[in-house]
Amino acid sequence: MRILLVEDDPMIGRSVETALTQDGYKVEWVRDGAAGKLALDTARDAYGLVLLDLGLPRKSGLDLLKEVRRAGSKVRVLVITARDAVADRVAGLDAGADDYLVKPFSLDELGARMRALLRRDIAREDNVLRNGDLALDPTSRTVTLGATFVDLSVREFALLAALLERPGTALSKAQLEEKLYGWGEEVESNAVEVHVHNLRKKLGATAIRTIRGVGYVIERA
Ligand code: CA
Question: What b/e sequence results for 77-89 when a residue is b if at least 16 CB atoms lie within 10 Å of its CB, and e otherwise?
């Protein structure tokens, strides 16, 4: 597995690189934020994990992380930082970090955190419905658009899940009503339209397409 290490401290960088290489990872070490951005822009899907320092020359780790998430990348990011202030950790997690590790840390601890993150990744990949920037996780009942969490009602969530199960396939209003409401439950005639309207407000006007006379579809991204 390829790991991108973005770290300007030569001592830390070298010890992490050595330890991970011994563990069988293929480590690419860059020493500033701009080089990290370049690596992720050119080969972002190639990395199983990014180890990201926050205090970096030429672009801070936080800015790098925000830009990468804004571009829609789901790559796992473990922030390694000397800054142990709560505000920095929160900012890092808000910007889309999956976990963080405060320096100084032991290499054993780093290895354990990495394995935990990668396991989480595998567990997740089974269920998550993805289409372009949009991801719906039925297990945690969360929806993300890029790096942003989107708040949905229970029925908006169910409707989106139904459409995301088969991107590119239109579902009729009746099919969607069936997914949204239980047997014998009173359904208002425009309920589906209302939920679709709300979803478009939250996800973007073009997120769900209406096919006149057929139903609704999420185009395959
Ligand atoms: Ca640093």
Answer: bbbbbebeeeebb
